[in-house]
User: Which sequence fits this backbone?
């Protein structure tokens, strides 16, 4: 109890966060010994979806794990509105107790470090229905234009434990996973990975025929990426070829949208080529790449990306923010997550700037690849309109809480600024490319990314990252110009955190040049010039600028 209370005090004191977090928050977000004592190696999930009742019935998940320490009790996560009925282990039914969205499982013997075991959890219930998916999370029980069932699930933040029992923490991904799902015939069922088989079975319990689909994920997968989709789907495919290797492209769309989808999804292959250029080959090659039409906007479900942008350019047809470009924002952004978020995942969602910032920056590089450098500059600077500077990008750790939504555009613009500061595009792109390889299929902390960039660049950007990630305000470049005859003197400084000394590019009417401000006033002679010719190369940085008269 003393440790718990201490954690509350620490969290209360975090800059930009005044919320006191609860025991429930800690159970969901903290890595206690009841979680770290075992490592999940495989999930074997079996689901029966009762569409009429909007329920999960007579389902189970078998968790294969390796003990990392001796233990007699572990934590399994499952939402309070779901019922855990039986836990099977070595022919016995285990005792368990419930606290909020957690089940504490008691073993009849001491489990020894190194043992490879499994437990089977039988459960069911009425999963949370999403009100505004994918942002609030849950099941979407919809009908398509023909009045047929159309169901999807999204649960980032809310957690996979909202609909199936698991170790619901981003730090532990299974090495692989099987998903078997059954729903009322003739609905088709789409999940992650590769489809192994479709069968039709009779359910005495539901008194109807069910379609049952078995899918297999052959790579590590994060819990929130696991998804199922049910509806009147048709499937068509394509192939992307890279270095004589063929990547299967699969598209699952509502039957009446097949024609427009075939045209619209032609943009996938050139996108894949661009991302491969910057980040390396698609990381889930054996499982293929898929877009699955969903009743909500989109989500980065691994190897089965949710797509709901209505076959329009931009964002639901809004092209204002993409500066007249014609690409589908949801396809590009969610596909970028296959590298940033799915292959590389942060241990704690407080560090989601790694996933969302790099992914949002992948849009920027896509634009540069497809439309050129100048269009890239327009696109990335257009992102400035979405920056709020409301609170820190990094959230409070160990309580399953994100930081500011600025983890998207502000973090992307931070990376754009970093590219400028490195002053070597060849090196910058090498760093990006090597980041994806160095941390491929891993869960990491944000600090590991910062350390890697510092090491590879040969520069210490620690204060830079601190300013942009841990403080809500942008650094403000303050300057004044003093005229003596035709000679101009520049006075300048940063209004920023202590030791912030980021150089910036300025222009005095001729070529751009670097100046090196810190938080103290400096002065520099600019020689003879027209005072109105002075400018800051704003397109290359994310900063505030204040001219002092």
Assistant:
């Amino acid at each position: 109890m003393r440790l718990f209370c201490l954690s509350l005090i620490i969290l209360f004191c975090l800059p930009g966060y005044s919320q006191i977090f609860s025991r429930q928050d800690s159970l969901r977000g903290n890595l206690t010994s009841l979680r770290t004592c075992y490592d999940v190696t495989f999930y074997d999930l079996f689901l029966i979806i009762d569409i009429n009742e909007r329920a999960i019935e007579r389902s189970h998940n078998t968790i294969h794990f390796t003990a990392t320490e001796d233990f007699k009790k572990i934590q399994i996560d499952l939402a309070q509105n779901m019922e855990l009925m039986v836990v099977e282990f070595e022919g016995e039914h285990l005792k368990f107790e419930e606290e909020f969205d957690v089940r504490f499982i008691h073993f009849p013997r001491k489990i020894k470090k190194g043992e490879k075991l499994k437990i089977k959890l039988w459960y069911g219930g009425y999963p949370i229905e999403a009100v505004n998916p994918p942002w609030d999370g849950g099941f979407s029980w919809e009908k398509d234009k023909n009045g047929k069932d159309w169901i999807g699930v999204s649960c980032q933040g809310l957690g996979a434990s909202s609909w199936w029992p698991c170790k619901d923490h981003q730090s532990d991904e299974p090495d692989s996973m099987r998903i078997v799902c059954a729903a009322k015939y003739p609905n088709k069922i789409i999940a992650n990975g590769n489809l192994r088989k479709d069968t039709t079975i009779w359910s005495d319990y539901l008194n109807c025929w069910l379609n049952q689909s078995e899918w297999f994920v052959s790579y590590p997968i994060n819990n929130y990426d696991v998804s199922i989709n049910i509806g009147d789907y048709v499937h068509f495919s394509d192939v992307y070829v890279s270095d004589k290797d063929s990547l299967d492209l699969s598209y699952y769309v509502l039957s009446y949208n097949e024609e427009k989808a075939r045209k619209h999804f032609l943009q996938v292959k050139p996108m894949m080529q661009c991302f491969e250029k910057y980040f390396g080959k698609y990381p889930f090659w054996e499982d293929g790449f898929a877009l699955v039409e969903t009743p909500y906007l989109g989500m980065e479900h691994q190897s089965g990306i949710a797509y709901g942008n209505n076959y329009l350019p931009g964002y639901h047809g809004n092209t204002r923010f993409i500066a007249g470009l014609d690409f589908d924002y949801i396809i590009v952004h969610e596909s970028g997550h296959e590298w940033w978020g799915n292959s590389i995942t942060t241990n704690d969602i407080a560090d989601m700037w790694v996933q969302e910032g790099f992914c949002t920056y992948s849009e920027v590089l896509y634009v540069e690849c497809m439309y050129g450098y100048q269009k890239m500059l327009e696109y990335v600077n257009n992102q400035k309109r979405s920056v709020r500077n409301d609170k820190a990008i990094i959230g409070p750790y160990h309580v399953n809480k994100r930081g500011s939504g600025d983890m998207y555009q502000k973090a992307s613009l931070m990376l754009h600024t970093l590219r400028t500061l490195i002053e070597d595009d060849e090196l910058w792109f090498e760093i990006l490319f090597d980041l994806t390889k160095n941390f491929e299929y891993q869960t990491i902390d944000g600090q590991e990314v910062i350390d890697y960039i510092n090491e590879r660049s040969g520069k210490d950007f620690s204060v830079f990252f601190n300013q942009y990630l841990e403080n809500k305000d942008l650094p403000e470049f303050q300057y004044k110009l003093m005229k003596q005859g035709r000679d101009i003197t520049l006075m300048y400084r940063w209004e920023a955190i202590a030791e912030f000394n980021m150089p910036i590019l300025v222009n005095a009417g001729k070529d751009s040049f670097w100046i090196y401000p810190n938080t103290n006033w400096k002065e520099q002679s600019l020689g003879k010039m027209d005072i109105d010719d002075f400018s800051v190369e704003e397109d290359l940085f994310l900063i505030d600028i204040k001219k002092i008269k």
